[in-house]
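Proteins fold reproducibly. Look at a concrete instance:
___
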Amino acid sequence: MFKIKRVLNKHNIYGLLTGLIFGFLLQKGGITNYNVLVNQLLLKDFTVFKVILTAILTGMIGIFFLKSKNLVEFNLKPGSVVSLITGGLIFGLGFGLLGYCPGTLVGAVGEGSLDALIAGVPGIIIGAGLFANVYPKFKNSFFTKNMIKRKSLLEYFEINPTLMIIIFSLIIIFTLFIIEILT
């Protein structure tokens, strides 16, 4: 079995506050609503896609600003093709069956959604428990085959960070503009 540590420190408090703000913003953006999420999957409502693109743009600019001031350091995690496919399939299965991803599920529970509470919360708890108990047995097997190099897009393409931010920002803004026109 596994043990849960109870530690109250400033990082946990920052995490809790960040999570509360994140959930509040998800709710205000309308993407804790089951119908909005399902309609995104059916390509009828692009609210979720627009929020994600805006978050990527904001996060990209924010992280590179903080990095330029030496306030953060990149710490790329290793991964493999098999682990990415496995994780994607599990995530997609849960999202497809319930209509929520983990972040929107917690926001929907906070909003009073019974389907998220009754089906989603037990699903997250059972899934996390299964992962915690099963992963250690498999972590040195097929999950470590075909490892991906720990490189960022900047390292792969050998491009200036400012130039990359400008290029991706323009692509995202153009995509958001097109979505607004077409929907």
About this structure: The beta strands are 79-80, 147-148.
